[in-house]
Specification:
single chain; about 325 residues; mainly alpha; Multidrug-efflux Transporter Regulator, Chain: A, Domain 2; 4 strands; DNA-binding transcription factor activity; DNA-binding; DNA binding; DNA-bd_dom_put_sf; MerR-type_HTH_dom
């Protein structure tokens, strides 16, 4: 029922509730908090509100629906801060909250996928919440340990270390899950032992002067291009059902051995071929490949397809040719 008070048309709290859709209890709360001062009162002391108060209440309702707290609503109403300023602050807060929620979702998805126990859940949550600096520090510590006390080619390892996980400000669930898996991988003792073993073999090749030869099959830019071409040919043979000891396998093995032998090595020597096969096999562990695949996902690089089946075929072809 519309009433006429000292200031014109006024409404009771109940009438405001009907017109705005807000509960009476909520309107009374806003009024008690000073966000909606009554315009007038009845002789019995009941609060009355005019049209301006109704408009103010609609604004309070809108700001609250957008997630603003009572303090920020009051700042907006009293002009202590402009609505755009407050909105900008809340956008930043919401962005932070969304990032946290996505981190939690990534952890929970990983937990559900793996059937993780409590301790692993705690670890994954810690890994997902790392800062950019923490992520880089984790990787630097990993590579420090991988080459500690070894004589290595500094340029080669500088390139290896330069590829750091760089999560964007708004990472996808796949990027977050890839980061969790990547962090677990570089912390895994077996993986660390694998990469340490590779580093030790690299150090040996540096010391005996063979680093530029058979130990560098996949290490310099030219050999990487060669390796891609060799893997493509091996995969084609594999898809066609050809065996590693086929004529195609022998031809590919001869080419790889010739390209990998240094000036003082005989590419036809059986021991050289067996050593080369061992080197290729040691560098072709699925976990080492997964390291780079995960980095690609995290950093938004082009996907890195697996070359492991082709690598195993090449290893078998080289051994069969020895």
């Amino acid at each position: 029922m519309v009433r006429v008070g000292n200031t014109g048309v006024v409404f009771t709290i109940g009438e405001l509730a009907k017109r705005t859709g807000l509960p009476v209890k909520t309107i009374r709360f806003y009024s008690d908090e000073g966000l909606l001062p009554p315009t007038d009162r009845t002789h019995s002391g009941y609060r009355l509100y005019d049209i301006k108060a109704m408009a103010r209440l609609e604004l309070v309702k809108t700001l609250r629906e957008l997630g603003l707290g009572l303090a920020d609503v009051e700042r907006a109403l009293t002009r202590e801060a402009s609505v755009p300023e407050i909105a900008s602050q809340h956008v930043d807060a919401l962005d932070t909250q969304i990032r946290r929620l996505r981190l939690r979702r990534a952890v929970l998805r990983a937990v559900a996928k793996r059937g993780s126990e409590l301790e692993e859940v705690k670890l994954m949550n810690k890994l997902a919440s790392m800062s950019d600096d923490d992520r880089k520090r984790l990787l630097d510590e990993f590579w420090d340990e991988m080459i500690a006390g070894l004589e290595v080619d500094s340029e080669f390892y500088a390139r290896m270390r330069s590829a750091k996980p760089e999560l964007p400000d708004d990472p996808s669930p796949e990027q977050l899950e890839a980061w969790i898996e990547f962090a677990e991988l570089v912390r895994d003792p077996e993986f660390r032992a694998l990469i340490r073993g590779m580093s030790e073999r690299h150090s040996t090749s540096v010391k005996d002067g063979t680093f530029k030869g058979d130990a560098a099959v996949q290490q310099n830019a030219t050999q990487q291009e060669n390796w891609f071409a060799w893997s493509t040919r091996a995969q084609s043979s594999l898809d066609a059902g050809r065996l590693p000891d086929s004529a195609e396998g022998r031809a590919l093995a001869d080419e790889i051995c010739a390209a990998s032998a240094g000036p003082d090595r005989d590419p036809s020597n059986p021991q050289f071929r067996r050593d080369l096969a061992d080197n290729v096999e040691a560098g072709g562990d699925e976990r080492a490949e997964r390291y780079w695949q995960l980095l690609a996902i995290i950093n938004g690089w082009p996907p890195i397809p697996t070359q492991m089946p082709a690598a195993r075929w090449i290893v078998a072809a080289i051994r069969a040719s020895a």
